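Support reply, case 0932

Customer input (verbatim):
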Amino acid sequence: MSNSSIYNILNTFEDGIPVYKQIAEKLKEAILSGELVKGERFPPEPELAANLGINRMTLRKSLNILSKQNLLIQIPHCGTFVAHESSARRFTVGIIIKDCQLVDSPYMSQLVAGFTLAASASKKLNITTKLISIVNSDYLNPATFYKRLAIIDALVIPLVSNKKAELFSAAELSHIPKIFMSISRQELMRDKNMCIALNPDTIEQSVRFLYELGHRKIAYVGLDPVGSDFFFAADRVNGFKKAMEKYGLELPCEYIYLWRGDFNKKPQQFCKKILKSPNPPTAIVSGASATGLLMGLMDLHLKTPDDLSIIGFDSPNDGIITNLRQPTAKMACKAEKLLKNVLLTGKMPKQREYLFEAELIPSISTTGLCLKTF
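Our regenerated output:
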C-alpha cells in the first residue's frame, strides 16, 4: 500500500477529540481490517507529521499507543512498520424484501444494487449481501423467521409498515445492527437500530416548484394515514399542508384526497372528479405514483401539462412525470458505510438518524401558467 493510502486514512479530524486519539483509532481500525497490511512501512515521522499539519510529538504519541498494543513496531533508524497480520472477517448483511419487489419496485432494485455495489467496493471488510424474502406467515410465526436470520450479521429493512417494524425491533434481534430505510421514528431508536429516511418536509419542493411556475390552485392526492400502516403517509400530507401555508396558498378541503386501496384507481377517480368541479386545481401533487392521475386525464381526453400540471413521488413514468425521487443510491451507500463501521468496531454511532432530501426531476408534466394555451 502506498503512503498516499495512509494519508487518505488520516485525511480529516473532528473537533473536540484529541488528535492523537483520533490518529490512533483510525490507524488501529485500518490495521485490524487489513487495509494496512503487515510489514507496511510508514513515512518518516517528520514527513508524516508535516503533511498532516500536526506536531511531531502528537504523532509520536499516537504511534506509541499502537506499539504498546503490538499493532506497530518501531525500529530505530529504520522506521515504523505494521506488525499485526489481519484476518479480515466476513460478514453477511441481509436485505429484507417481499416477493417480486425487485421486479415491481424500482426503489427496491436500486437499493439492493446500490448497497451491493458499495459493499463489493469496500476494502476494509468482506461483506456478502443476502436477500431475505418475507411473507405474511413470518409475521404470524416470528420464531421461525428469527431462526432464518441466525446467519445474518446485520439487516437492511426497507419500507416496512408501522406494525411490521415491530417484528424487527423484537428482543430476539436486539443484538443485530439494523438500518430501517425510508422510515424514521423515535420509537425505533433503540438497541442497535438506525434510520435512514427522507426529510419529513421534503414534499415542500413540489409546492415551491409549482408556485414558482405561477400555480396557486394546487391539490394533493396520497395515502390516507389513517388507513395506511406506513410511516411516510402522514409525513407527506402534513408536509404538503405546511408548504401551502408557507406560500400563503388557499387549501379548500376538496383539494386534499387521501385514498385507501388501489393506488391507481383511486387517484384516477379523484382526478376526474376534481377537474369537473366548479373550482378545479391547475396542478396536483401526488404523494406516491402519479400513474392514476394520468389515467384520469386520459379518461377525460385531457392532457398534461396543457390541462393539468402533475408532480409524482417515486413515480415510474420517467420522461413524462415531473418527479420527486428518493436519492436511493446515496441512501444505500450511507447504509453500507454505517453498517460497515458498526461491524468493524462493534460500536454504535452517536447519531442514529440520517435524513436526505428527495431530488426533484422536472419533466413535461409541469409548465408555468403563463405558458399554457387554452
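We compared this against your earlier run and they match. Two observations from our side: The longest strand covers residues 90-98. The mean pLDDT is 87. Please reopen the case if you see a mismatch on your end.
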